[in-house]
What we know:
Blueprint: E1 13-18, E2 25-30, H1 41-52, E3 63-64, E4 70-73, E5 78-86, E6 96-103, E7 108-110, E8 114-119, E9 122-127, E10 135-144, E11 150-160, E12 167-168, E13 174-177, E14 181-190, E15 200-205, E16 216-220, E17 226-233, E18 240-249, E19 254-264
Parallel strand pairs: 4-11, 13-19
Antiparallel strand pairs: 1-2, 3-5, 5-9, 6-7, 6-10, 8-9, 10-11, 12-14, 14-17, 15-18, 16-17, 18-19
Amino acid sequence: MRTPTDLHRLPTRTTSTADSRDNLSVCSCLKPNYSPGAPTVAVLLCAFLSLFGGRARAAVAPIISPIPDLVVNEDEPILHVPFTVWDADSPPERLTFTTFFSLTNNNYFSRDNIVIGGTGSNRWFSIYPLPDGSGPALGSITVRDETGLSATAIFHVQVYPVNDPPRLSAIPDQMALKGQGCLSVLFWVYDPETSVSRLHLTAWSSRPAVVSNCGLRLTQSTTQTNRNLLISLPANGTAGSTAITIQADDGQSTNSTSFVLNVQPPDFTRSTDLIPAGGEGFTPVWGDF
């Protein structure tokens, strides 16, 4: 019986074929003539080499182009930044993408702030930062092929802060009776950069004859952002409509909200005349009141 060391002496018929990629000579074994019990490794090796052209190609990860660092002002998007992708194992249409975006100062991260567009190998992305967020940020785009291999491009974004004006809630139109005393109107005020306690609030009336400016007073409500506008409605006031405006100032910008106050005369007036004792001389009046 032949031993493995005698394998090179096995009689075979061979043909030599050239691999155009590697210029290698591949042995294609045809009907090897060996005695029973001889090793079959040579047969399997020759068949493997014939089938795969002399070598097995490993899967290759996709490629994504570098992305430059970006700058943008607060509350502004970054639109249509181009990049390219390529993969040896999957067509570009079958590549999948995942994104990541994080604002360092806000401890905020999301996978939804970056939108991918484009077709084939030519792609683009847009970034929609967190509203009122600023500071350094980190972004990444990962491309993955059908074999599961991936590549990631990491880039930095600097979001410059921009002062935002104060914000006030909308106030619906109000109705009051002349001489009812005081009307309380609730609203809220907020500023992204400035403490509410440092905001300067003022209020005025478009028709001082109906509501005077000195009859308007702003007070603290149940929370820091909630405020009350107290409106004085004296008995000797005037019925009518007036627009009341509330303005907030953070030292750099202002914002305001307005509503209409309708002051109506009462349906009846108080009388100081006393009804005579026993009802003498008193004549009732019937009607719908």
